[in-house]
Amino acid sequence: MPGLFILGALGLLAGCASLETREALVTPPVPDNVVFTINGLPVTRDELEAEVQLVKDEAPPWIEEKELRGMLPEIRKEARNRLIYERLINAELEKHGIHPTDEQVEEEYKVMEEYYDAHSIPLDTVIEFQAGNSDGLRQAIHDQLAVDALWDTLLGLEEPTEEQCRKFHERNRKQYVLPEAVRLHEIWVGVPPDEVLEPDEQRRLRANIQSLRERWEAGTPFAELAREASDGPFAAKGGEIGWVPREVDLPPEVIEAAFAQQIDEIGPVVESQFGFHLLWVSEHRSERQVPYEEVAAIVSRDFKRTRRDRDSQKFYQKMRRRAEIIDY
To answer: Is the pTM of this model over 0.70?
Structure first.
């Protein structure tokens, strides 16, 4: 029984070692700044505190600092759970060698751009509020593609067939409806919010935008005028806002005028609480159901995401229960 002999000899050697030596063999030293490990992967105090701050930053603006302090135990728990998830998922990504390519990221970026444009949501606004800049959005897309591919691997999910995607599209027809919308361009001479203008200043601003209208009527390109004189956030793009449906966060006077205006008509000056607006409608589309062929890539993505969401949480909870988490 040579195997038993070797094990016995090792046991005798371990018995002869000092207690300190045996502890060193079993438990490697942990740096002072590590607060816990997940399957041997360390999380430092700085990382935990940074994640706690991120959770706090995501709180709604109406929650006061005093309330946040009272919620600190729950916030720390959420931060800890996020870091555990991150470590477990990143370990699985490395284990399975999942690394989305730049081409895959750019393809998804283009799909997002087309989707938001079709639904009258400026991608610039999405980037500003969710990712900071286009590089941040691309990094977020990369990370999401990686996690999606991981769940497909762990759950054994195959690429959906065209038949499955077509049935999904049919069952979820309301998701694939384009609302009535106009492609809107705007020159905006702004008034600071809640500011009451003196009559002379009111007349000066109205005369200013009226002169811009006259130049447009005389043949100066709208985009040139917008870049020169518009106060709006879309001035750099020649005043182009993009597709705008009726239910959008713009002054009601602007929406009413835009949908009443004919394509390429030189419309009247529109006044709202935010100032004066000159509008150009370059296209007008009716509400329509989008056929599968036009949104096949989006339908496939939506189908796969729905399928993943159904099973990934259960799988992750099993992964979490199996993980060895040691606090220090």
So the answer is: no
